[in-house]
Design brief:
single chain, mainly alpha, DNA polymerase, domain 1, 5 helices
């Protein structure tokens, strides 16, 4: 994630800090290495995804559960590839 995004970048960084170390590493790693390559719609979807429960996010990112929403599925794949 590049500098200059202001309060919204700080908010995303804070929301990527979760109650599980695994999620912290995956989400913060993606924020640093893959987030900037997303389009605006995907960035908004990522922000919405951060509102979901930790266990659901972990299940998606570890591949235990497949998101039914194709947008979330594509985003999960991008996160996996980036970290």
């Amino acid at each position: 994630m590049t500098g200059g995004e202001g309060a919204s970048a700080d908010r995303l960084r804070w929301q990527c800090r979760r109650g599980m170390l695994e999620l912290d590493l995956l989400l913060q790693g993606f924020l640093e290495r893959g987030f900037d390559a997303l389009g605006e719609d995907e960035k908004a979807l990522f922000a919405r995804m951060l509102q979901l429960e930790d266990q659901l996010l972990l299940d998606w990112l570890m591949g235990y559960v497949v998101p039914s929403d194709p947008g979330y599925m594509a985003l999960v794949e991008k996160i996996r590839r980036a970290v």
